[in-house]
Structure formats: C-alpha cells, structure tokens
Amino acid sequence: MPRVNLLNTPSYSEEDIYSAVSRQFEALEVEKDLNPMMMVLLKPNLLYGRKPEAGITTHPSILRAVIRWLRERDITNIVVAESSGGLFTAEYMKGVYSLSGLKTPGIEEYLNRDFTFRSVPTKEGFSVKSFNLITPVTEADYIINLPKLKTHAMTTVSIGVKNLFGTIPGLQKPDMHRRYPKTGDFVRMLCELCETVRPSLTLLDAVDSMEGNGPGGGTVRHTGVTLCSKNVYALDAAAVRFMGLDPEEIPHLRAARAMGLYPEEVELTGDALVPCSPAFKLPDAIKSAGFDDSVPGFLRKPVEKIMDALLRSYPRVDRSKCVGCGKCAESCPRKIIKIENKKAGMPRKDCISCFCCQEMCPVHAISVKRGLRGL
Ligand code: SF4
Ligand code: SF4
User: Structure pTM?
Assistant: First the structure.
C-alpha cells in the first residue's frame, strides 16, 4: 500500500527544513533506494523567476536541504533541472535561477546547464505516443519531484503530477495546451507524462502555499507542512484533502483513477492530516466554470455544451496594470494575443481558456471574466 508521510514544518529556516527532509526520507526509507553511483535529478517548480516569498516557486531551502542530505550519503551526481514557462535557454534560465534564489551556495553548482531535449516513447495505448523531455530527466537514475502546493486556473490544483509539466521544454508547453485544450484531455495527458517521467519520490513544499488565482497570481498562505511519498497520485490526493478539498473534484485525480493509476488505499503516517479551515480559495476561473463534469449520465454532454457557451471564463487585461512585456503573447498556444501600443489585447474568438497568459503575467494584469463565446 502506498504511503504518504506528513510532517509539520513550521518555517523555511535551515534547521526546520533539514530536519523535515531527514525525517521524511527516513520515514520512507529513501536511503535504501540510492547508491553513490546514481545520477539524482531534483525537479522543483520554477514557474518563472520570482523571489521565494512570493509563494510561486519551490523554496530554495528545500533544494539546499535535499542536496545536503544526498551529499552526506556520498551522492555527488546531482542535477537541479526545470523548464519554466518561457524559453528553455541558458540565458532565460539563468534569470529564473537568479530571481528564484537558486544562485546561492549549496545549490548553484548543481543547476542544470544542458538545454537540449530528447523524444521519449510512451506506453502502448497512451494517447500521446512520445514526449519531448528535457535531457537531464531522460538521463537520471532517480528523480525527486519537488512541487509547490498551489491552486491552478485550469487544473484546479498544481501539486506533484502537474509539476512534471515542467519536464517539457520551453515553448513546447503551450503547444501541448493547443493539442489538448479541454481540461479532461489535458489532465489525462499529464498522467501519461507522469507515467513516462516516473518520479521516484515526491516531496511537497507546503510550508507556504498559494490559494486563489494560482499558480502565479494567488495569495500566499502559511500552511506549515511538508508531504512525502513514493506514489505521486497518493501524495496529490492527500495534499488535496489537506487543502480542504475533495479529491473526487480534482480533474487529474479523476483521470488517474480512470487510468487505473490511483491507489484506492493509502497509508498516512507522520503528523495528523488536518484539513485547512477555511478550505483553500479556488481560482476565479474554476469557480465560474460552475459544475464542469459534475452533471451525471445522459445529460452531461448537452449540459456541458450549453455551460461552455454561457459560463465559460476568459482572460481580461487590466490595461492600467499591463506593461506590454509580451509574456502572455509568448505563452498563448493559440497565438491570438497582440501587443499594441505596449498593451495586450485578447480576443475571445479562438481562446481555449487555458489561462497560460494569466499564469505568466508578471504584474497580475490578467483576471478572469465569465462571458459568451465570441462576444
Ligand atoms: S504578460 Fe501581463 S503585463 Fe505582459 S503584456 Fe501580457 S498582460 Fe501585459
Ligand atoms: S488568450 Fe490566454 S486563455 Fe486564451 S488561449 Fe491564449 S493563453 Fe489561453
């Protein structure tokens, strides 16, 4: 039976985090899975370059503690690798590393400097036949997935499975949104990606988390825990319960269950899992989407069609906040965003409501508006 270990982790102080990492890895007997000859890859969430206090990226103290723990076991071949939203180039990632606090002793020397990718075939029967993955992911013997606990405008939550979307290089990510514009298809693709990357271990940074308009524009909430598991679906389900939400309402967990990946029984160890009260605030896009997928049986298709037309959410730009940086246009899978007179314009026609634009806007100038398609 898969096991999820939860530990109260009050702060990002070196002492608290190293203690939490050591106890998490001891509880799950991680040392037994490793040897000094292995290449160990650490996959943080670096959505884009932001200071750690913004609650958008995996905190550097987690990376520093994991690296220290590995080094103390004579493991030296360690790579911290991620493809943020935006370009996957040395220059772009240098800025992300720097802004996210990773260009500091104990981490800097392990940052990935290989910006190539490889095509990796998937399992038979998957809808995606192969994924392009950043090269270090394809070379690693052991992958430690280090997500940040956040809400997400398209997938409701961003935890362990969603964090692996950052193994797809740079601007190939918007292309996946273009290929899988519907949430149900997109989250199934995420599960297929997860089965292709196959993280060995997931350690969730939920010391400070993000609620509301995550993954980039929400509010930081101190939640004071870390969760760890060798089963990423079990960890995601436990984290969702911790958020005060129902795993049955989370699209990627429903997809995982349909694919036979979701463990029906999980052993919870460590400190008690006490659901957050009040529950995490959801993104505006999720709230206004209403009963997406919740209408049963024969009514589902026609009702969804009507709801899609009437209640679909779209991005809206606050022109007074927009600085014309073009990050939204760069990340838009449909290439419909135009920057004119240093302001972004977003027509609803052809918009697939993926909210990549909102996710990438550095000044939170994009909000969610419910409205009729094409108007
Ligand atoms: S990303 Fe935000 S600030 Fe930049 S152009 Fe788009 S809306 Fe404006
Ligand atoms: S405008 Fe925004 S929400 Fe619409 S397709 Fe482009 S990135 Fe997605």
Answer: 0.91
